Amino acid sequence: MSSTEQNDSKKSKSIFLTKNTLSLKVALTAITAALYITLGYVFQPISFLGLQFRVAELIVGMCILFPIEGLIGNVIGVFFVNLTSPLGPIDLISCIVNVPALYCIVLFRDKKFLKYLGGVLYAIIISIYVAIVLNLAFMLPIWLMFVQVLIAEVILASLGILLFDITKRRLGM
After folding, report:
1. Phi/psi of residue 55, each to 5°?
2. Domain segments of the chain as ranges
3. Which of the ends of the chain has fewer CB neighbours closer than 10 A, N or C?
4. b vs e for 22-53, b when ≥16 Cβ sit within 10 Å of the residue's Cβ?
5. CATH classification of 3-170 is 1.10.10, yes or no?
């Protein structure tokens, strides 16, 4: 492929990805939510309670590519996945907690290695919330629940950020 063809290919990719049409934003939000919901339902048996490993948390990395669409899509996804939570309606509050947590990822998304700090902050906020809810619902020890959830959240958020950061670089965004 000649250099002219490569430049034309890059231009067409960047034109498509930089158009800020409402329909594109809605589609990206829906894709993010659908990915989260799908992974949440497929891995539902390991997505709740103290020893949770919610594979859907990989999708938080979408905030690296599309900050607002990724944030909104993740919040929608969390809501629908938590409809099936064994904790009941109290787990739906986590949608509210997800907004500032996801914003940590959005805030650091363009900062080389600090983007992983955003993921760790996300994991800490979510882990605190889950530990408190598990304590209120089942009288489980807060610190133990915090540590168990934190380990899984840090792993998944970091992998999600890595995955979508690689995607971002490959797409030349």
Report:
1. -55, -30
2. 3-170
3. N
4. eeeeeebbebbbebbbebbeeeeeebbbbebb
5. no
